[in-house]
# Entry
Amino acid sequence: MDFKITETDGSTRRGIIETGRGVINTPAFMPVGTIGTVKAMSPDELKDIGAEIILGNTYHLYLRPGTDVITKLGGLHKFMNWDRPVLTDSGGFQVFSLAAIRDIKENGVEFRSHIDGSLHFIGPAEAMKIQGILGSDIAMTFDECIPYPSTREYAEKSIELTTAWARQCKENQNPGQALFGIVQGGMYKDLRKQSAEEIISIGFDGYAVGGVSVGEPKEEMHEIIYYTAPLLPSNKPKYLMGIGDLGDMLKAVDAGFDMFDCVMPTRNARNGTLFTSAGRISIKRTEFKADSGPLDQNCGCYTCRNFSKGYLRHLFLAREILSMRLNTIHNLYFYLDFFRNMRDSITEKNFKEFKEKWETIFA
# Structure
């Protein structure tokens, strides 16, 4: 994997990540395909709207369908018929957020599956082995994601584990697979700095910041975003994990981050909340009952080119499967188009104006 910065506008960067399966233009938004599918979307539809990379999850794919099945069916790319890059999260966050019971040990985490309660163990060696079997283009180190709020003592112990596990992941890095280290430390700036220094000293292909958007106030999250980004190497991709709010991502790009993922556009689509150039709308509102206009006059997606708000409202209230599909196509197109325009604003040296405009709309 190679990374180069092509344009800058202050601390904001535009760049290119080159992988064996294709180029990723940054800043980049990665649609989330947790269990080998971006919900309601086919691979061809993802390509049509401009997705260059998608995200899969180690924890979920390990539990179901299992690495033995994915191995027999040719690896994750072949399994899901996606020939472009895939990034796999190591599963640390899911162990934190989903596991029925977890027991953190020095060499990993013992946990019970949220699916059937069965007992499992994943540590750094296991996480790298699973990601090697999946065959993702970019793998993530196994880390501990701490809740908010957390005591300083807990955060200190957590980054000790995260650093130790990162070293073990580096030692077990799979040939031909890029590996990103993850910075933790909660809301403690000095611990974020310590974690960044320790992770950077190990040496990774890219660097991520985890443990944000876990319940903390927006002001604290933004403070950590702006504080942490400059601590990371400028010649490597900087990935802010799990952030999908458009306003938050604008601030993160302003701080210097390059990569993002979140279920927000797809989850909101299934719940009838849609993103437009005029802001968020709820398609179930009565005012759209006989509205013949598209969701967004400025949008070129399949949904906006072919269907009215009245029809989309009808599908949603009738709980038709097509509602989820059309809404998801629109929301993901909107996000990816938003990032295309944001990259252009960096090239044209007017990111500040772009940011101010969209922060007003999505305040």
Observations:
- The mean pLDDT is 96.
- The radius of gyration is 20 Å.
